[in-house]
Every structure is written in C-alpha cells, then in structure tokens.
Specification:
Keywords: DNA-binding, Transcription, Transcription regulation. This is Transcriptional regulator. GO terms for molecular function: DNA binding; DNA-binding transcription factor activity. The chain is built from 5 helices and 3 strands, in the order H-H-E-H-E-E-H-H. It is mostly helical. It has a domain of 82 residues: Arc Repressor Mutant, subunit A. It has a 3-stranded antiparallel β-sheet. The longest helix has 16 residues.
Length: 118
C-alpha cells in the first residue's frame, strides 16, 4: 500500500518486526474485526472504510479498524478524504506462516455452519 497521505494525516502502524502473535490473535478474536478481515482478504485492492456495512456505530467501526491497524493486521492510508484499508497479508504470512489462511478457513466454515448473513 502506498502512503499518499497529506502531512498530518499519516496513520501509525507497527513495523513488521513489532507485530506480535498475541496482539494479532486478540484483534482477530472479535466477530466484527474478523468480518472486516474476511472482506479484505477477498478484495483485489484496498477498500474504503465507508465500503463496509457493519452492525455497529461509526465510532465503534473506527475503533475496530484502529485495533486491526495497531495490531499490524491491516494497513491504512488516506487517499484524498477516503481512508483506505488493506490486509497486511505478506507481513502476516512471513511472521506466522499459515495462520491467516487457517483463521480465514475456520471463519468461512463457521459462517457456513451457522448460516450467518456475513
């Protein structure tokens, strides 16, 4: 993801070496955050935060994206007025091989088993 933010609009992200397994697992333990990651995992490119139709308030949505960003699961940048999000798949796959794929497969299986809407 290319950082194209205007000065003062750069969002903090952990460096790859700072990403910790327990922080990633905590971030992915919430159903709303897992839903965001599932959607990002199927996207060909970054998605605007406003693209997500989540069953929570705007402020809670902002919180969920912040937890994902600060844990190193996603990267965010501003493009004009849009905040764009993308999965840090390369970083996660290098640090924790197979973890993301296993979690996403388990989430898909649970989704199918429970017949959830999302």
């Amino acid at each position: 993801m290319t950082e194209t933010a205007a000065p003062g609009r750069v969002l903090p992200h952990p460096d790859r070496a700072e990403i910790r397994l327990e922080t990633v697992l905590h971030a992915l333990s919430d159903p709303v955050r897992l839903r965001i990651v599932r959607e990002l995992s199927t996207a060909a490119d970054e998605l605007s935060c406003s693209r997500f139709d989540l069953p929570v308030t705007k402020s809670t949505t902002t919180h969920h994206f912040r937890v994902l960003r600060e844990s190193g699961v996603i990267r965010q940048c501003y493009r004009g007025t849009a905040k764009m999000s993308g999965l840090r798949r390369d970083d996660l796959d290098d640090l924790f091989p197979g973890l993301l794929d296993a979690l996403l497969a388990a989430a898909r299986g649970q989704h199918a088993r429970l017949g959830e809407d999302t």
